[in-house]
Amino acid sequence: MTTGEGGMLVTQNDEVASKLRLLRSHGMTSLTWQRHLGHARSYEVVANGYNYRLDEIHAALGRVQLKKLPANNERRRDLLRCYRQAIDELDGWAMPFSDSIEDSAGHLMVAIAPTNDARDQAAERLRNAGIQSSMHYPCISDLRAFLQFSSSRLPVTREFVSRVITLPLYPAMNEQDVERIFAVLRERNRIPVMH
């Protein structure tokens, strides 16, 4: 579900809840509203926190979206079933966790191409057809913030990263949208990829 910005965490662990409340607001021990109400006079910053407070407008949007969440998740699962059927018709392609759609929130539709070239050609054909795709899940140790942990190892991760592609998935899609995506994916070598 979307709130535009912000979000919500739910936990039954009091220690985790306390830590998250602290981190959501710059690591401050009290908020402006608490000070306004006289519950605190000042504050201390006791942790390197963030500005993760959900404002009222985005919270109102979230409340409306929350009512739609069960139906939207079921719609995504319906679309994932369509994707699973379509991907089974593509040689060498796979859909991770396709046997556990019933347990999924349907956040993303991830496909694994048979090769890196097949993935790149598919992404190019989709782009030329005006269909967005993404390359989710780069190898974390290759990202600048984590270069100190970089490793030339992780062959399975690197193979996965080179072949994975994220296809469109949202509740307003229909089965014809999935078929259009796969019609483009079936067009092998029709649009050359420029290197």
CATH superfamily of the largest domain: Aspartate Aminotransferase, domain 1
Low-confidence stretches: 189-195
- The number of distinct β-strands equals 2
Q: H/E series, N to C?
A: HHHEHHEH
Oligomeric composition of the shown chains? single chain
Mean pLDDT: 88
Q: Hey, roughly how much beta strand do the residues contain?
A: under 5%
Describe the structure.
Helix 3 packs across helix 6. The longest helix has 32 residues, at 56-87. The protein folds into 2 domains: 1-54, no CATH class; 73-186, Aspartate Aminotransferase, domain 1 (Alpha-Beta Complex), CATH 3.90.1150. The protein has a two-stranded antiparallel ribbon. It has helices at residues 14-23, 32-36, 56-87, 116-128, 155-163, 175-186, and strands spanning 109-112, 164-167. Mean pLDDT is 88; it is low at 189-195. The protein is mainly α and 195 residues long.
Structural key phrases:
195 residues; mainly alpha; 6 helices; 42% helix; disordered C terminus
